[in-house]
Amino acid sequence: MMMRKAAAPARRISAAEAAGLVQSGMWVDYGAVLAQPDVFDAALAERRAELHGVKVRTCLSTRPRAVLEHDPDNQHFFMLSLHFSGYDRRKHDAGIVSYLPVNLGEIPDYYRRFLPPVDVAVFKTRPMDKDGNFNLGPANLWHRAVAERARLVIVEESEAVPLCKGVENHLHVSEVDFILRGDDHPLTELPNPPPTEVDRAVARLIMERIDDGDCLQIGIGGMPNAVCSLLAESSVKDLGIHTEMLTDGIIDLYKAGFLTGARKQIDRGKIVYSFGLGSKPLYDAVNDNPDFHCCPVDYTNLPQNIMQNHNMVSINNTTQIDLTGQAASESDGLRHISGTGGQLQFLRGAYASPGGRSFLCLSSTYDKKGDRRSRINLHLTHGNTVTTPRTDVMYIVTEYGSVCLKGLSVPERAKALIGIAHPDFREDLEREAYHHRLIPRGFF
Fold this sequence. Notes:
Layout: E1 11-12, H1 15-19, E2 27-32, H2 39-46, E3 54-59, H3 66-69, E4 77-81, H4 86-93, E5 97-99, H5 107-113, E6 118-125, E7 133-135, H6 143-148, E8 150-157, E9 170-172, E10 178-181, H7 197-207, E11 215-218, H8 222-231, E12 240-242, E13 245-246, H9 248-255, E14 271-273, E15 275-276, H10 280-286, E16 292-294, H11 297-300, H12 303-306, E17 312-317, E18 320-322, E19 327-328, E20 331-332, E21 335-336, H13 343-352, E22 357-361, E23 365-368, E24 371-374, E25 376-377, E26 395-398, E27 401-404, H14 410-419, H15 423-435
Parallel strand pairs: 1-10, 2-3, 2-6, 3-4, 4-5, 6-8, 8-10, 11-12, 11-17, 12-14, 13-15, 14-16, 17-22, 18-25, 22-26
Antiparallel strand pairs: 7-9, 18-19, 20-21, 23-24, 26-27
Helix pairs in contact: 7-8, 8-9, 14-15
């Protein structure tokens, strides 16, 4: 672990004093997810008239950011996000947030090799413990890498941050320049709506391929969490977890006794994750709990680590598939909606794992302004971003079936994907596939 050394002993200052350290043109880093500062953010927004060209980097905003709310025309601040939340998406639509394309597991290396040095880094942490450590809570990710590259490091203490066990999940007081007192408001909760019938239909098909002792990665969204719901009703046992995001569905499996991790090859018995976002019961479950292991994202997400656990099962959402198997999971045409996240790295890690499997799941249709459309199409929507290349896709699952694309030619892929599209669209898809020679005449 590389340790940053502060130039002078850490000093306690007010939020206004901390915001006063920011100058025009600086790079300010808010960290990611639940580690983003709130009191500092509000104080910095108050200084907007004095500043211009301040660039704020963040990821998955869980609350409105004051620097954006008080500067809707980008006169003073501009934000770059490494993965969009719903809030970030709306601000992107308004032209005041942009996306930085990344595989999430590579971000620590981006900070160390490619991104400009950070002028001021500010993270929300637990108050300092008796050993001088500020625990980062359920948001390890790349915060240590940011601190290494930052000219100034500020921590915003909050009693609301749970104590999360793990690897390098803290900053020592010797690495910190300034400490400010944050608020103790409860952490943001991510709503977890009950699974729909389509979610459950997809989950049942995935469930058929999950065995005792498998090690799971569960992505964000209704369908991956529906798998957790069904697993909790099953007789499967000794499951392990090695994931990027800790979800409520995983917590439910843990409480029900399904997650022993007894057959894992690395971190046996531990639920390994890089960040958690969900309900208060999730934050309560991880607090001071040695069963949970919060690690940097370049540990959880790099394929060479993922593959070390045998029978790795990766379960993620996608939004559109073309008939050759390209998966678009992060945009709607030229409109960016989320991010690459860890999807591609977990698909590759699961594939390389002995006995591993990866699943991309999606509903067969969606509604756009009253118009029902197929998510399986001849080609991707114009401008859509390919998140997972067709060469990496294994299982595709809709409510109408599951197909494995590994080893299939383009005609075989097209035929298989048409077979799990909504029945109302299959005839047109097949006609288009023949017309554009994806399926040559006489092939079948």
